[in-house]
Amino acid sequence: MLKFQPPGFGHKVIHTSLGAMVYYTQTNAPWALADIENLPPLLFLHNFGGGASAYEWSKVYPAFASNYQILAPDLIGWGESAHPVRDYQIKDYLNTIAEFIIQTCHQPVTVVASSLTAAFAIRLAITQPNLFQRLFLVCPSGFNDFGQGSGRRLPLSVINTPVLDDLIYSLGAENEIAVRNFLESFLFAKPQRVSQEMVEAYLTSAQQPNAKFAALAFLRGDLYFDLSLYIQQLTIPTVIFWGEKAQFTSIKSGRRLAYSNTNAIQKFYAIADAGVLPHLEVPEITIGLLQRYLG
Prior knowledge:
The chain is of the alpha/beta class. The protein is 34% helix and 18% strand.
């Protein structure tokens, strides 16, 4: 996935309890590398779904590379990180994200995260608030918020059939037509914004050995939970952005989540004409909003 990274960014590796986690950071010019360790850390966490990886944030984080140490990992089971063959559970991601922060951040971190991973960040910030400074979250959802299973795509009886697992994944995530259709039909508000580079980046990630295991855990709903049961406990200052046309996770549900904890959630901003990935669909808007609230 390195070929899809912006100029001046390379990859490094840390080791978690579930294997190696690759992350992208400033490694070459034009960034002032001598000062990189002294810059405050800014962590970007990608969404889940077939072909997901740190590429999702690659149009945004270069804008902050002069003032922050950028950390953009491929989560375990995704991108170029380890793909252990296992039935992935929520605790796998809570644990490995915490391990990543502890190993890479010398001070409380500002996190920028999306969708289900943003919901994981909320849970981590509740249990380990010492790790976090601020949260900037895009469409945070546990995909079962307020008891409404908005995210499940396929019947469990189908996904849990081994032969069909392989077929579903190969047809749904490992070919260019399916990847483009997924981006255009479900993730973006305007299909014409999907570029060939985006399709290739998602396809490359989806075709990594054993990539299907994390993706199918997501599709099965193994990683879903009701975020509304947790969000009231959040104390870390948080700003939420929401694509007005996000599918599966409606903006109505997002506002309801935000209003349930107005002490921690300082702002809820709706992004017009954008789906669940405004940072990939309209990165210039996302950059501007982050700059405004990062202060």
